[in-house]
Amino acid sequence: MNSQEHQDVDLDVVIIGAGIGGISAGYYIGQLKNYSYAIFEAREELGGTWSSFTYPGVRSDSDMFTLSFPFNPWTKSNSVAEGDEILEYIKQTAKKFDIDKKIIVGHNATDLDWSSEDQRWTSTFKKLDGSSAVITSRFLMLATGYFDHEQAHFPDLPDKDTFRGPLIHPQFWPKDVDYENNTVAVVGSGATAISIVPHLAQKAKLVTMVQRSPTYITTRSRVDSIAKLLLKLLPLNLAAIILFFIYEIVLTIKIFLYKTLPNFGRRQLQGYVKKQLPKHVPLDPHFVPRYNPFAQRLCWTIDSDLFVSMREGKVSVVTGDIKQVTSGGIEMEDGQFVQADIIIQATGIQCKLLGGTKITIDGKKFNLGETFLYRGMMLDGVPNAVVLLGYLTSSWTIGIAQTCEYFCNLIEKMANEGHNQVTPIAGPEVKETTKPFPLTSGFLVRASHMLPKSADSWVWRYRSEPLLDWLDIRLNNRHQSLEFK
């Protein structure tokens, strides 16, 4: 049944968010026959993260062959793309499939209410002019991502107000900042720091990466020679499928090996770094993490650009605790002083699932932190709704595509069998696990009390193995623990 048979709703499907998740949802819903939808975006431009993040060096930290849309494969031989290139690719995809015509910008979702009596969602949006819009729908797809676009993570830097230069967080990069021939201190050691430091080093006088503790770093080539050959010799779709499985299978094997044999993984990763370092820079303490490989996501350099900059004397690394910020830089607890004209606080994001939207079920407030996550995509007790989440250890888009395919199949099943409502129900046998996340990244740990619970049961746990999840949905009872009405 679709909106033509349900004249009491405005749309069959409301999609919230116009990033990779929202564009994917629009495509898959568009493949269903006679289902109406619209994508509501809080900002004034589609693209999500790739529209919001504009700092120097912003790029994919996953390969583009698995990060790209399955229905519009990446056709270039570069396995890594810059942020503006990814944004253009997303826009081109939306236009190619007429998804852009379904996007309504400047609409921030504030309230989502499900009525069991009416079997529909009522979504309230705040528009840029301050007015409100109310839309009813049968289904809801939440493609809001996982981080807060308004607030970043700012750990305390003692006496930072005494600093005479600009103190910048990459998430809110100002257009007018001039770092050419300046000394720059980048506080942080995660993916943002690893990507921004070598880029700044191209123009800055000196860039110092100030880290409390190091992370595991590896490298990949910007241009993939195998991809270049396959894209030249094979039909595009066949080449894209082969490249997808090459990259995903290699990553899956690497994760399995490094988690099963952490000492082996540690030797492999640190062996690469040791060969890249200048002779005067020791491996320990700068590149010996406190955790095992893949307890946090790996950081990637592109063609070893970070270490090339270090060997050229353009980048240095300081490891330890910060004592205080002074007018001219950063003083460390061990007495080292990092001179800086500019301080960049690449200290991470704040996690914010569902975009901070208030959800009520029959007028009762829904608490995300008290519910279980079903198959990494639906919420216990929440009808006709899906949360578009990707994988934390693999490319985000893989999880998005799996979610969209599953939910669209669910919608078709309901239409064929005459159902109007589907709800995941966690029975009393579902028990919370003490280790809900496949990663221990800081932004997840900080937000653990606000995120859905995970169980040991396969369907009530956080997803972390794309290939196994793909097989499970196709081979096992794909509708286990779902209640239809």
UniProtKB/TrEMBL annotation:
UniProt-listed Pfam families: Pyr_redox_3
GO molecular function: monooxygenase activity
Cofactor: FAD
Domain of life: Eukaryota
Transmembrane segments: 234-257
Chain coiled-coil ranges: none
Gene3D superfamilies, A to Z: FAD/NAD(P)-binding domain
Swiss-Prot/TrEMBL keywords: Membrane, Monooxygenase, Oxidoreductase, Transmembrane, Transmembrane helix
InterPro entries for the chain: FAD-binding_MO, FAD/NAD-bd_sf
Protein name, as recorded: FAD/NAD(P)-binding domain-containing protein
Species assigned in the record: Meira miltonrushii
Organism classification: Eukaryota, Fungi, Dikarya, Basidiomycota, Ustilaginomycotina
